[in-house]
């Protein structure tokens, strides 16, 4: 994912403008073995940006090497 923080004229975006404070969703999580419900507010921090232009581009699988655990860093692609 790439996020541009400046426009074509090199002016910084006012990123808090892209947070929709009237929107939210319930997610289910767990902590210490206890199930929890959480109210999450979409915004820049979780990828659910409001009024933001999004462009999806397909890339070769060889360029996509996500790191979700420490052990993922041991894969050949991250050496």
Main features:
79 residues, mainly beta, two-stranded antiparallel ribbon
Word description of this protein:
The chain has strands at 25-31, 34-40. A hairpin with a 2-residue loop joins strand 1 (25-31) and strand 2 (34-40). It is built from no helices and 2 strands. The chain has a two-stranded antiparallel sheet with strand order 1-2. The protein is flat and about 40 Å long. The two termini are 21 Å apart. The chain is mainly beta.
DSSP, total strands: 2
Question: What is the strand arrangement across the widest sheet?
Answer: 1-2
Poorly predicted segments: none
The first-to-last residue Cα distance is: 21 Å
Query: SSE order, as H and E?
Result: EE
Tell me, what's the shape?
Answer: flat
What structural class is derived from the secondary structure elements? mainly beta
Average pLDDT reading: 81
**Gyration radius from CA atoms, angstroms:** 17 Å
Proportion of β residues? Answer: 15-25%
Helix content, binned percent:
under 10%
């Amino acid at each position: 994912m790439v996020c541009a923080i400046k426009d074509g004229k090199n002016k910084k975006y006012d990123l808090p403008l892209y947070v929709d404070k009237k929107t939210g969703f319930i997610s289910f999580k767990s902590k210490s073995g206890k199930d929890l419900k959480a109210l999450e507010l979409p915004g820049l921090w979780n990828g659910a940006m409001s009024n933001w232009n999004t462009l999806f581009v397909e890339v070769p699988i060889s360029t996509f090497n996500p790191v979700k655990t420490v052990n993922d860093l041991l894969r050949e692609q991250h050496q």
